[in-house]
Amino acid sequence: MEQKVLYKGQVLILTRFWATGEPCLWITDPQQIGMPKMEFVGGYPGEYCIFLKNLTETELAQITSMDGFPLDVMKELDNI
Question: Which sequence spans correspond to the domains of the chain?
């Protein structure tokens, strides 16, 4: 399961990386590859994500629901 979220004004997908199960924010638009901490993670050109382990507490707090409400990211990940 995955969930659309907002982070730094961008719609990303909160999910787990398919290869390792690590929590991440997956791109929804190719223009997002330039976001800070975005990494190329796959064999296909559009496979980019931000691993949550690379975000500070302040950055994690910036991840919100699509209607702008703060999320408990770790709780949300339990459902993914």
Answer: 3-78
